[in-house]
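Annual report, structural modelling task.

Input specification for the zinc ion complex:
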Amino acid sequence: MLRVVDRIAECDDGRHQEVLPEARTHIALHRFGGPTLPYVHDAAGIARFYRAHPSYTGGQMPYSVVIYQTREYGPIMVEQALPISEVGPHALRWSDEAIGVAVLGDFRKAKPSFELWNVTVDICAALAFWVNDNVSEILRGHSELPHGSSDPDKDCPGELGFPMDKMRVVVTNKVRWLETKWGTPNLDLKRELQLLVMGFEI
Ligand SMILES: [Zn+2]
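The model returned the following structure:
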């Protein structure tokens, strides 16, 4: 069972920039890691970093969901940092449309562990139930979004660790499996998932 921990109170700055659920049409996968970024432990650490450096996002938490491995071979944590209807500035003009999911680490240089990869697949699949189950159309790495970054050479989340073509195939398979369990996505299920996957089983 995958449990998503509610860290919204620690991460959301309280300024509301909400969109209608229907406006969320994509999922964007990011890394949070690299030489220009500090080492942080969790979603609250990311939120503190952006709060302290308002030149990046105006001080706002960019990501809705944060995934990380607590230590080598340690358990995987999934934290919800923003409500699904709240826009975090994570991909310029795509921020309204795409739900931002960040994985801690520099995946340009390292591959995720098997467990971290699997949990990321599970979360993307669960979110695809909210957004649209046509994964090949809606799941994108940050760098794949046209004009989604001010840095044209950005490699996010990192082709080495998260090759997006492979992710889309694996997430599609997971969605098909979830559909055998939950049925096809419908509005009731989406409402249930509005506060994301808290406590729900994958
Ligand atoms: Zn990114």
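The chain has one domain: 5-194.
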